[in-house]
Design brief:
The chain is α+β, with helices and mostly antiparallel strands. It is globular, with a radius of gyration of 20 Å. The two termini are about 35 Å apart.
């Protein structure tokens, strides 16, 4: 099947609408509120001066800067000669039906040599979905991988993950103001928090994908993943093993 055949894969509309942008943004800004609250407690307890509030302020600056970085990244991907844009209006429309409540307005599908099987990038309401050029050869697996990426878009993960990381870092520095020796185990705790957030997000996207395209597509997808899977440091912090992901999909399908 040629890459343009992605348009025949499609995704069914979500049986239930996603919660929408408001809920996910509340989660992100709630993390910022945690940073401010923890800093306020440390300052009020006399462990540090008010200058400690520079940490949540820096977090706010990062929040403001990330959209600019994401727009530049998206523009680079749209013009990257290593990928070619394919017309896939049915696929784009299906992704918009799923991620539209989270603010996605435009989906561009590009095909080429992609790390993994499919990846998505978002800046504001515009998104680019990168698809490995061999993925359409296995349509059932492709449906699951693309549904998984649609779930990332719908979950607003492009903002949620950095928010979790920055909040963990602010809390770590605040802990260092209270008891400096805690910084060393605190770094380990931050790494653990990031890993937990990332892996939980991947599992949730898998569960949403199963809801949308069914367990058979997940079974086929993870049989493909298992053949190509190589354990790495990155996989420890981002993705559970294929066996763990498939087990979670089966539990979700039975629920």
């Amino acid at each position: 099947m040629p890459p343009a055949g992605l348009d025949t894969i499609g995704l069914p509309a979500a049986s239930r609408p996603m919660p929408g942008r408001g809920r996910w943004l509340a989660w992100c800004w709630g993390s910022f509120a945690v940073s401010v609250a923890v800093t306020a407690v440390v300052v009020a307890a006399g462990f540090s001066a008010a200058s400690l509030f520079v940490e949540p302020l820096a977090q706010l600056v990062v929040f403001a800067t990330l959209p600019v970085i994401r727009h530049l990244r998206l523009a680079g991907l749209r013009g990257d000669g290593r990928y070619r844009t394919v017309p896939a209006p049915a696929l784009s429309a299906a992704m918009l039906a799923v991620a539209g409540p989270s603010g996605v307005r435009e989906v561009t599908v590009r095909v080429g040599q992609v790390g993994g099987f499919a990846r998505c990038f978002r800046a504001g309401g515009r998104t680019v979905v990168l698809v490995h050029e061999r993925l359409p050869v296995v349509p059932e697996a492709a449906r699951f991988f693309l549904a998984h990426e649609a779930a990332h878009l719908a979950r607003y993960d492009v903002f949620r993950r950095p928010a979790a990381l920055m909040t963990a870092l602010v809390c770590l520095f605040d802990l260092g103001a209270v008891w400096p020796p805690a910084l060393i185990p605190g770094v380990v705790a931050v790494v653990a928090v990031v890993a937990v957030v990332n892996r939980a997000g991947e599992r949730d996207c898998d569960r949403l994908a199963v809801r949308w395209v069914g367990l058979a597509a997940a079974e086929r997808a993870f049989s493909v993943v298992q053949r190509a899977y190589r354990r790495s440091v990155r996989s420890l912090f981002v993705h559970p093993t294929p066996a763990q992901r498939l087990a979670a999909c089966r539990i979700s399908a039975e629920a």
